[in-house]
Amino acid sequence: MSVSVLSSTRALGSISGILQVASLLCLVLLLLLKAAQLYLRRKWLLKALQQFPCPPSHWLLGHQQEFQNDQELQQLQKRVEKFPCACPRWLWGCEATFLVYDPDYMKIILGRSDPKVHDDCRFLAPWIGYGLLLLNGQTWFQHRRMLTPAFHYDILKPYVGIMANSVRVMLDKWEELISQDSHLEIFEHVSLMTLDTIMKCAFSQQGSIQTNRNSQSYLQAIGDMKKLTFSRVRSFFYQNDIIYGLTPEGRRNRWACQLAHQHTDRVIELRKVHLQEEGEMEEVRRKRHLDFLDILLFARMEDGSCLSGKDIRAEVDTFMFGGHDTTASGISWILYSLAVHPEHQHRCRKEIQSLLGDGTSITWDQLDQMPYTTMCIKEALRFYPPIPVIRRELSKPVTFPDGRSLPRGIKLSLSFYGLHHNPKVWPNPEVFDPSRFAPGSDLHSHAFLPFSGGPRNCIGKNFAMMELKVAVALTLLRFELAVDPFRVPIPVSKIVLSSKNGIHLQLRKLL
Fold it and tell me: Transmembrane ranges (predicted)?
């Protein structure tokens, strides 16, 4: 009996050992196959990008040193000066993106229908879902056509008053704060104001949103997700969803997504409840033009079906983020630019005072009657484009005007920041010169792209420009702006252009 048991034990031990060896061999084989795959990918990229020189890169780490210490934008400007039109940037040994910062190159790429980079969509989808920003092909076209009426001029005109009221709430708050200290970090306040505006204009929300704790929690979640998503794109070890989900950053990302979704779900549910009240549904149906959220709730697709709850939330998540954060970036950097250049600030103020007087009201028609202020706004958007870069993946080969070409499958980074600081496009690009946008200026059609270009340009660009003008005009009537010499902002690209150390200004109330 004991001999039999001993024999069985030995046999099991022998089988277990064989299985361990087999498992180890399988693991080694998988690693070798993966290494071969990465090696072949690198060889293909080297061949595909050989026509375009770039700075020397490490065989494994690529150009990672450019991303350290938030020096990416400064390094980008060096590339733009040295390498005409475009150049590769290696993220790591087997992954590269093709940087574009030339208007002719931009025109060709933006005129095509290349999709968003798959990994970018995969990283962003848990946050904003597959709405207009991430969709491609026919589904994107259907959603774009469906939502375009939400930005019709007849819809936008009444928004001017809502925007002005939101700005005044912010400015009143600034008056109280500077009575204690004239130094103020403005980006957080501007973000609350633009969130207030988009929620009232596009989502029919009421109440004091700028003092609402839920709004502040939402903004914190958005800030966290921007940083986490941007860092994930740059990390080789965070590309796998399972591995990333197990990391502290992955858990933080998941928690921030939940907070953002709770906010947008609440917005959708409140509107549904309101529409179910007696008479409200029919009153909305009789409107010639519907607000953004009402379009989604009443939408019918080509097959007659309604949008799913998932699709509605994706569009609300997309526009809730895109409709406030990019505009907040634009307004903050414009005010900073005017603080840096008091001569232009003074001239803008004189123009606005002659048009608006004490600023008790501002109308749609007046927005087109401030030409110099508009020139300064555009020059600030050139200097500090709210979206510094977008990415595409070539769905078919492309040949550029200079004869160089790229094959299908190459990932492109269309750098609007690089384009706007390209000395071959903008002479003395680091000089703030609003006259670049004087009437009659001869600009390349794709030299200035603060709202992207082509068929996938920003659907809300007219809404955004309205809000920029309203915010700048009313702020200059109330305050004189100056820089804080001890806290100069450091621009960083985190999906939306922000500042590493905030945007601090000194404010003086005008009598």
Answer: 12-33
